[in-house]
Amino acid sequence: MGCGPPARPEPILIGHLLPDEPGEAELQGIALAVDERNADPDQRLLERPLTALHAEAHTPADFESQTVRLEAINRVHLLIGGATGIRSEHIRHGIQADQTLFLSLSGWSGSTYHATVFQIGTAPRTQGQRLGEYALEAMPTARMVAIINGRDRAANERYDGFRVACGRMVPMVSYGATDSRVELLQRLAKDAPQLLLFAGSASDFLEFRQAWSKSGLPPELMILFAGDETDLVQLRTTPMECEGVVTTTTFLADRETPSVIDFVTRYEKQFQQKPNALAALSYEAVQVWAASVVKAKSLEVKQVRYEWLRGEVFPGISGPLQFTKAHQMERTLFLIRLSKGAPAFLKVWEPPALVEKQ
Questions:
Q1: 166-199: per-residue pLDDT in tens?
Q2: Architecture of domain 124-249+337-357 in CATH?
Q3: For the chain, is the Cβ count within 10 Å smaller at the N or the C terminus?
Q4: Contact by Cβ (8 Å): 14, 51
Q5: Largest separation between any pair of C-alpha atoms in the chain
Q6: Does 12-122+255-327 carry CATH code 3.20.20.150?
Q7: What is the pTM of this model?
Protein backbone atom coordinates (compact mmCIF):
# COMPACT_ATOMS: atom_id res chain seq x y z
CA MET A 1 0.00 0.00 0.00
CA GLY A 2 1.50 3.33 -1.08
CA CYS A 3 2.08 6.27 1.17
CA GLY A 4 0.24 9.48 0.33
CA PRO A 5 1.39 13.00 1.12
CA PRO A 6 1.31 13.94 4.79
CA ALA A 7 -1.97 15.45 5.95
CA ARG A 8 -1.98 19.20 6.14
CA PRO A 9 -2.33 20.55 9.66
CA GLU A 10 -5.78 21.85 10.48
CA PRO A 11 -5.93 25.67 10.42
CA ILE A 12 -6.51 27.71 13.54
CA LEU A 13 -9.61 29.85 13.04
CA ILE A 14 -10.19 33.40 14.19
CA GLY A 15 -13.48 35.21 13.62
CA HIS A 16 -13.99 38.83 12.62
CA LEU A 17 -17.32 40.66 12.89
CA LEU A 18 -17.17 42.72 9.70
CA PRO A 19 -19.25 45.92 9.72
CA ASP A 20 -20.64 47.64 6.64
CA GLU A 21 -18.61 50.78 7.20
CA PRO A 22 -15.70 51.30 7.73
CA GLY A 23 -14.96 47.56 7.80
CA GLU A 24 -12.31 47.43 5.08
CA ALA A 25 -9.56 48.76 7.34
CA GLU A 26 -10.33 46.14 10.01
CA LEU A 27 -10.31 43.35 7.42
CA GLN A 28 -7.00 44.52 5.95
CA GLY A 29 -5.30 44.86 9.33
CA ILE A 30 -6.27 41.29 10.19
CA ALA A 31 -5.26 40.02 6.74
CA LEU A 32 -1.79 41.57 7.03
CA ALA A 33 -1.18 39.98 10.43
CA VAL A 34 -2.47 36.57 9.30
CA ASP A 35 -0.41 36.63 6.09
CA GLU A 36 2.75 37.53 7.98
CA ARG A 37 2.20 34.76 10.52
CA ASN A 38 1.62 32.17 7.80
CA ALA A 39 4.54 33.29 5.62
CA ASP A 40 7.17 32.90 8.34
CA PRO A 41 7.63 29.36 9.73
CA ASP A 42 9.07 30.85 12.92
CA GLN A 43 5.83 32.75 13.53
CA ARG A 44 3.48 29.81 12.93
CA LEU A 45 1.10 29.07 15.78
CA LEU A 46 1.70 25.53 17.08
CA GLU A 47 2.95 24.62 13.57
CA ARG A 48 -0.51 25.27 12.12
CA PRO A 49 -1.73 27.87 9.61
CA LEU A 50 -3.96 30.73 10.69
CA THR A 51 -7.24 31.49 8.91
CA ALA A 52 -9.56 34.46 9.45
CA LEU A 53 -13.31 34.15 8.90
CA HIS A 54 -15.06 37.45 8.21
CA ALA A 55 -18.76 37.44 9.12
CA GLU A 56 -20.73 40.38 7.73
CA ALA A 57 -22.86 42.26 10.25
CA HIS A 58 -25.29 44.87 8.90
CA THR A 59 -27.37 45.60 12.02
CA PRO A 60 -26.67 45.57 15.77
CA ALA A 61 -28.56 42.27 16.02
CA ASP A 62 -26.29 40.79 13.32
CA PHE A 63 -23.24 41.29 15.53
CA GLU A 64 -24.87 39.11 18.17
CA SER A 65 -26.17 36.37 15.84
CA GLN A 66 -22.95 36.18 13.83
CA THR A 67 -20.99 35.86 17.08
CA VAL A 68 -23.15 32.87 18.02
CA ARG A 69 -22.49 31.28 14.62
CA LEU A 70 -18.72 31.85 14.67
CA GLU A 71 -18.44 30.44 18.16
CA ALA A 72 -20.88 27.50 17.97
CA ILE A 73 -20.52 26.38 14.36
CA ASN A 74 -17.09 27.54 13.19
CA ARG A 75 -15.45 26.98 16.59
CA VAL A 76 -13.16 30.00 16.29
CA HIS A 77 -10.52 30.51 18.95
CA LEU A 78 -10.64 34.30 18.87
CA LEU A 79 -13.22 36.96 18.03
CA ILE A 80 -12.18 40.43 16.81
CA GLY A 81 -14.43 43.41 16.14
CA GLY A 82 -16.72 45.86 17.85
CA ALA A 83 -15.04 49.12 16.88
CA THR A 84 -17.90 50.99 18.58
CA GLY A 85 -19.22 50.44 22.07
CA ILE A 86 -22.67 49.44 20.77
CA ARG A 87 -21.26 46.83 18.38
CA SER A 88 -18.95 45.53 21.07
CA GLU A 89 -21.81 45.10 23.55
CA HIS A 90 -23.81 43.06 21.01
CA ILE A 91 -20.82 40.81 20.35
CA ARG A 92 -20.35 40.31 24.09
CA HIS A 93 -24.01 39.34 24.45
CA GLY A 94 -23.58 36.75 21.69
CA ILE A 95 -20.76 34.90 23.43
CA GLN A 96 -22.34 31.70 24.72
CA ALA A 97 -19.62 30.40 27.02
CA ASP A 98 -16.22 31.25 28.46
CA GLN A 99 -14.51 29.24 25.73
CA THR A 100 -13.82 32.01 23.22
CA LEU A 101 -11.73 35.14 23.68
CA PHE A 102 -13.07 38.40 22.30
CA LEU A 103 -10.78 41.36 21.61
CA SER A 104 -12.89 44.49 21.29
CA LEU A 105 -11.46 47.19 19.05
CA SER A 106 -13.42 49.69 21.11
CA GLY A 107 -12.49 50.61 24.65
CA TRP A 108 -15.97 49.66 25.84
CA SER A 109 -17.86 46.36 25.88
CA GLY A 110 -20.53 47.12 28.46
CA SER A 111 -20.66 47.86 32.16
CA THR A 112 -20.64 44.21 33.28
CA TYR A 113 -17.60 41.96 33.56
CA HIS A 114 -17.05 39.05 31.19
CA ALA A 115 -14.16 36.66 31.74
CA THR A 116 -13.16 36.34 28.08
CA VAL A 117 -13.76 39.92 26.86
CA PHE A 118 -10.79 42.30 26.59
CA GLN A 119 -10.65 45.84 25.19
CA ILE A 120 -7.67 46.98 23.12
CA GLY A 121 -9.04 50.44 22.28
CA THR A 122 -8.93 53.44 24.59
CA ALA A 123 -11.24 53.28 27.60
CA PRO A 124 -13.96 55.98 27.40
CA ARG A 125 -13.12 57.39 30.82
CA THR A 126 -9.44 57.60 29.89
CA GLN A 127 -10.25 59.48 26.70
CA GLY A 128 -12.40 61.92 28.68
CA GLN A 129 -9.63 62.42 31.22
CA ARG A 130 -7.02 63.16 28.57
CA LEU A 131 -9.31 65.69 26.86
CA GLY A 132 -10.03 67.27 30.24
CA GLU A 133 -6.32 67.58 30.99
CA TYR A 134 -5.79 69.26 27.66
CA ALA A 135 -8.71 71.63 28.24
CA LEU A 136 -7.18 72.77 31.54
CA GLU A 137 -3.78 73.16 29.92
CA ALA A 138 -5.01 75.07 26.86
CA MET A 139 -7.77 77.19 28.45
CA PRO A 140 -7.52 76.94 32.26
CA THR A 141 -10.08 79.67 32.98
CA ALA A 142 -12.49 78.92 30.14
CA ARG A 143 -16.21 78.48 30.67
CA MET A 144 -16.82 74.88 29.70
CA VAL A 145 -20.00 73.04 28.68
CA ALA A 146 -20.75 69.55 27.39
CA ILE A 147 -23.22 67.77 25.12
CA ILE A 148 -23.56 64.01 25.65
CA ASN A 149 -25.63 61.20 24.21
CA GLY A 150 -27.76 60.27 27.21
CA ARG A 151 -28.55 56.83 25.77
CA ASP A 152 -24.87 55.88 25.44
CA ARG A 153 -23.16 54.65 28.61
CA ALA A 154 -19.73 55.06 27.04
CA ALA A 155 -20.52 58.73 26.34
CA ASN A 156 -21.42 59.20 29.99
CA GLU A 157 -18.10 57.60 30.98
CA ARG A 158 -16.28 60.04 28.71
CA TYR A 159 -18.06 63.01 30.28
CA ASP A 160 -17.32 61.76 33.81
CA GLY A 161 -13.62 61.39 32.98
CA PHE A 162 -13.54 64.89 31.50
CA ARG A 163 -15.32 66.46 34.49
CA VAL A 164 -13.03 64.77 37.01
CA ALA A 165 -9.90 65.83 35.12
CA CYS A 166 -11.16 69.42 34.99
CA GLY A 167 -11.79 69.36 38.73
CA ARG A 168 -14.97 71.36 38.45
CA MET A 169 -18.61 71.14 37.53
CA VAL A 170 -19.10 71.26 33.76
CA PRO A 171 -22.66 72.20 32.74
CA MET A 172 -24.06 69.49 30.50
CA VAL A 173 -27.08 68.79 28.31
CA SER A 174 -28.05 65.25 27.41
CA TYR A 175 -29.69 64.56 24.06
CA GLY A 176 -31.88 61.80 22.67
CA ALA A 177 -32.88 60.80 19.17
CA THR A 178 -35.81 63.22 18.91
CA ASP A 179 -34.49 66.23 20.83
CA SER A 180 -34.24 69.51 18.92
CA ARG A 181 -30.58 70.18 18.20
CA VAL A 182 -31.17 73.93 17.94
CA GLU A 183 -32.97 74.16 21.30
CA LEU A 184 -30.25 72.21 23.11
CA LEU A 185 -27.52 74.42 21.66
CA GLN A 186 -29.47 77.55 22.57
CA ARG A 187 -29.62 76.35 26.18
CA LEU A 188 -25.85 76.02 26.25
CA ALA A 189 -25.34 79.38 24.55
CA LYS A 190 -26.86 81.11 27.59
CA ASP A 191 -23.69 80.23 29.55
CA ALA A 192 -21.53 81.99 26.91
CA PRO A 193 -19.12 79.03 26.79
CA GLN A 194 -15.59 79.18 25.44
CA LEU A 195 -15.03 75.41 25.24
CA LEU A 196 -17.42 72.56 24.44
CA LEU A 197 -17.03 68.81 24.92
CA PHE A 198 -19.15 66.65 22.62
CA ALA A 199 -19.49 63.00 23.72
CA GLY A 200 -21.48 61.03 21.16
CA SER A 201 -21.30 59.74 17.61
CA ALA A 202 -19.91 61.55 14.58
CA SER A 203 -23.34 61.41 12.92
CA ASP A 204 -24.92 63.17 15.89
CA PHE A 205 -22.14 65.73 16.00
CA LEU A 206 -22.69 66.62 12.36
CA GLU A 207 -26.41 67.11 13.05
CA PHE A 208 -25.53 69.60 15.79
CA ARG A 209 -23.08 71.36 13.49
CA GLN A 210 -25.86 71.97 10.98
CA ALA A 211 -27.83 73.70 13.74
CA TRP A 212 -24.85 75.73 14.97
CA SER A 213 -25.61 78.96 13.10
CA LYS A 214 -29.05 79.22 14.73
CA SER A 215 -27.83 78.57 18.27
CA GLY A 216 -26.06 81.76 19.27
CA LEU A 217 -22.87 79.88 20.18
CA PRO A 218 -19.67 81.82 19.40
CA PRO A 219 -17.89 80.69 16.19
CA GLU A 220 -14.50 80.71 17.94
CA LEU A 221 -15.66 78.09 20.47
CA MET A 222 -13.06 75.35 21.07
CA ILE A 223 -14.64 71.94 20.41
CA LEU A 224 -13.36 68.70 21.91
CA PHE A 225 -14.82 65.48 20.48
CA ALA A 226 -14.98 62.26 22.51
CA GLY A 227 -15.96 59.14 20.57
CA ASP A 228 -14.73 55.97 18.89
CA GLU A 229 -12.08 55.54 16.19
CA THR A 230 -14.90 54.92 13.68
CA ASP A 231 -16.17 58.42 14.45
CA LEU A 232 -12.79 59.92 13.59
CA VAL A 233 -12.92 58.20 10.19
CA GLN A 234 -16.32 59.84 9.54
CA LEU A 235 -15.27 63.26 10.84
CA ARG A 236 -12.34 63.32 8.43
CA THR A 237 -14.74 63.00 5.48
CA THR A 238 -16.44 66.30 6.43
CA PRO A 239 -13.49 68.71 6.73
CA MET A 240 -15.47 71.98 6.67
CA GLU A 241 -17.80 71.00 9.53
CA CYS A 242 -14.97 69.56 11.61
CA GLU A 243 -12.21 72.11 11.05
CA GLY A 244 -10.29 72.69 14.28
CA VAL A 245 -12.01 69.94 16.26
CA VAL A 246 -9.71 68.39 18.87
CA THR A 247 -9.92 64.65 19.62
CA THR A 248 -7.77 61.59 20.31
CA THR A 249 -6.56 58.56 18.37
CA THR A 250 -4.47 55.47 19.05
CA PHE A 251 -2.52 55.68 15.77
CA LEU A 252 -0.99 58.27 13.46
CA ALA A 253 0.36 57.01 10.14
CA ASP A 254 2.84 59.90 9.75
CA ARG A 255 4.66 59.35 13.06
CA GLU A 256 8.33 58.91 12.21
CA THR A 257 9.16 56.07 14.59
CA PRO A 258 10.69 52.80 13.35
CA SER A 259 7.69 50.63 14.27
CA VAL A 260 5.15 52.98 12.66
CA ILE A 261 7.24 53.43 9.50
CA ASP A 262 7.69 49.65 9.23
CA PHE A 263 3.96 48.94 9.66
CA VAL A 264 2.87 51.66 7.23
CA THR A 265 5.40 50.46 4.62
CA ARG A 266 4.20 46.84 4.81
CA TYR A 267 0.55 47.87 4.77
CA GLU A 268 0.96 50.19 1.79
CA LYS A 269 2.86 47.51 -0.11
CA GLN A 270 0.00 45.03 0.33
CA PHE A 271 -3.04 47.32 0.02
CA GLN A 272 -1.77 50.44 -1.83
CA GLN A 273 -3.21 52.80 0.77
CA LYS A 274 -2.30 54.23 4.16
CA PRO A 275 -3.58 52.44 7.27
CA ASN A 276 -5.80 54.14 9.82
CA ALA A 277 -6.29 53.41 13.51
CA LEU A 278 -8.84 50.64 12.84
CA ALA A 279 -6.32 48.80 10.66
CA ALA A 280 -3.62 49.20 13.32
CA LEU A 281 -5.90 48.00 16.14
CA SER A 282 -7.01 44.95 14.13
CA TYR A 283 -3.41 44.08 13.29
CA GLU A 284 -2.37 44.41 16.93
CA ALA A 285 -5.31 42.28 18.07
CA VAL A 286 -4.10 39.32 16.00
CA GLN A 287 -0.46 39.78 16.98
CA VAL A 288 -1.08 40.17 20.73
CA TRP A 289 -3.22 37.02 20.78
CA ALA A 290 -0.80 35.07 18.57
CA ALA A 291 2.21 36.03 20.68
CA SER A 292 0.40 34.77 23.78
CA VAL A 293 -0.57 31.48 22.10
CA VAL A 294 3.08 30.93 21.15
CA LYS A 295 4.28 31.74 24.66
CA ALA A 296 1.63 29.59 26.33
CA LYS A 297 2.12 26.82 23.74
CA SER A 298 -1.64 26.43 23.89
CA LEU A 299 -4.91 27.69 22.43
CA GLU A 300 -6.67 27.20 25.75
CA VAL A 301 -8.51 30.32 26.90
CA LYS A 302 -7.21 30.02 30.45
CA GLN A 303 -3.61 29.85 29.30
CA VAL A 304 -3.87 32.88 26.99
CA ARG A 305 -5.78 34.88 29.65
CA TYR A 306 -2.99 34.10 32.10
CA GLU A 307 -0.44 35.66 29.74
CA TRP A 308 -2.60 38.77 29.38
CA LEU A 309 -3.38 39.21 33.07
CA ARG A 310 0.07 38.56 34.48
CA GLY A 311 1.38 41.89 33.19
CA GLU A 312 3.01 40.81 29.94
CA VAL A 313 4.11 43.80 27.84
CA PHE A 314 3.62 43.45 24.08
CA PRO A 315 5.29 45.47 21.32
CA GLY A 316 2.68 47.70 19.70
CA ILE A 317 2.85 49.79 16.57
CA SER A 318 2.81 53.14 18.39
CA GLY A 319 4.23 51.95 21.70
CA PRO A 320 4.15 49.11 24.24
CA LEU A 321 0.85 47.44 25.15
CA GLN A 322 -0.31 45.88 28.40
CA PHE A 323 -3.63 44.61 29.72
CA THR A 324 -4.82 45.70 33.15
CA LYS A 325 -6.61 43.42 35.60
CA ALA A 326 -9.82 45.09 34.38
CA HIS A 327 -9.15 43.66 30.86
CA GLN A 328 -8.36 47.12 29.47
CA MET A 329 -5.35 47.75 27.24
CA GLU A 330 -2.91 50.39 28.44
CA ARG A 331 -1.49 52.10 25.38
CA THR A 332 -0.13 55.29 23.82
CA LEU A 333 -2.76 57.91 22.98
CA PHE A 334 -2.40 60.90 20.66
CA LEU A 335 -4.17 64.24 20.87
CA ILE A 336 -4.90 65.70 17.44
CA ARG A 337 -6.61 68.69 15.81
CA LEU A 338 -8.43 68.17 12.53
CA SER A 339 -7.15 70.48 9.80
CA LYS A 340 -8.60 70.20 6.29
CA GLY A 341 -9.67 66.65 7.10
CA ALA A 342 -6.23 65.53 8.27
CA PRO A 343 -5.06 64.91 11.86
CA ALA A 344 -2.50 67.43 13.09
CA PHE A 345 -0.45 66.18 16.03
CA LEU A 346 -0.76 68.13 19.29
CA LYS A 347 0.38 65.85 22.11
CA VAL A 348 1.17 62.26 23.04
CA TRP A 349 0.40 60.43 26.30
CA GLU A 350 2.33 57.31 27.19
CA PRO A 351 1.43 55.25 30.29
CA PRO A 352 4.34 55.86 32.71
CA ALA A 353 4.56 52.22 33.80
CA LEU A 354 4.96 51.07 30.21
CA VAL A 355 7.56 53.70 29.36
CA GLU A 356 9.70 52.40 32.25
CA LYS A 357 9.50 48.86 30.88
CA GLN A 358 10.64 49.76 27.35
A1: 999 999 999 988 889 999 999 999 989 999 999 9
A2: 3-Layer(aba) Sandwich (3.40)
A3: N
A4: yes
A5: 90
A6: no
A7: 0.94
